[in-house]
Amino acid sequence: MAQFWKVGLLAAALFGAAGVAVAEIRDLSGSVGYRERIAMPKGATVEVSLQDISLADAPSVELARIVLRPEGNVPVSYRLSYDDAMVRDAHSYAVQAKIVVDGDVLWRTTSVFPALTREAPESVDVMLEKMPMQEAAEMPDVLTSSEWLVVVLDGKELQSERLPQMRFDADGRVSGSSGCNRFTGSVDTSRGGFAFGPLASTKMACPGALGAQEMQFFAALDRVTGYNVQNGAALVDADGREVMRLMAE
After folding, report:
1. CA 219 – CA 106 distance, rounded (Å)
2. DSSP H helical ranges for the chain
3. Per CATH, the architecture of 26-130 is what?
4. Architecture category of domain 141-248 in CATH
5. 98-138, pLDDT tens digit by residue?
6. Most CB contacts within 10 A, which of 121, 135, 167, 248?
7. Beta strands 76-83 and 61-68, pairing class
């Protein structure tokens, strides 16, 4: 018995010396709500996730997710369990949420709700925005089939090492990066249109040419009213002029 006890102590010492990370499960709690004074539809599910949004030129990384089926109305309390060993002090994290009924997203986050680091609150209360009812709710398949890099902006080929990046989802959402800050928002495709809604973005300082590129990119999105795929993919303005040309990653 003494021999086994010594072996156990030796193994523990070796693991400690090697710096092996041991998972420590922690909880992040808060609530999900919306501003409209209406009851939550029957059969609604509330999906809440914890995302690492640190990288401006890459998709966010999901650390935890929970799907709730509340019986009452908002606010809906949640508790997310995550592995603390995956959290880095220098990274940025956010809570995202949406309310889904029969596959349709009726409310979702359009702003960044920080969590865990950078003086974020211990409890994260998330406020959702109501999604517009769309006659043609689905994003065109040709745009959802790839993630896109913006290679031409306002008629000029971009030379930056960090090109703007965009991803379109079938439910009318868009996300990506200006090359500096990450953004998320919606695209209104109702009545045959194609218009970007309000966008939420991170607030990192963008030095020099990268900052100028970001300003030009977001200003260009405001002018987009359509798209064409005759020669690749392009977003166009009301007169059919190319605002930006996209290249599949």
Report:
1. 28
2. 2-18, 141-144, 208-223
3. Sandwich (2.60)
4. Beta Barrel (2.40)
5. 999 988 889 999 999 999 999 999 999 999 999 876 444 46
6. 167
7. unpaired
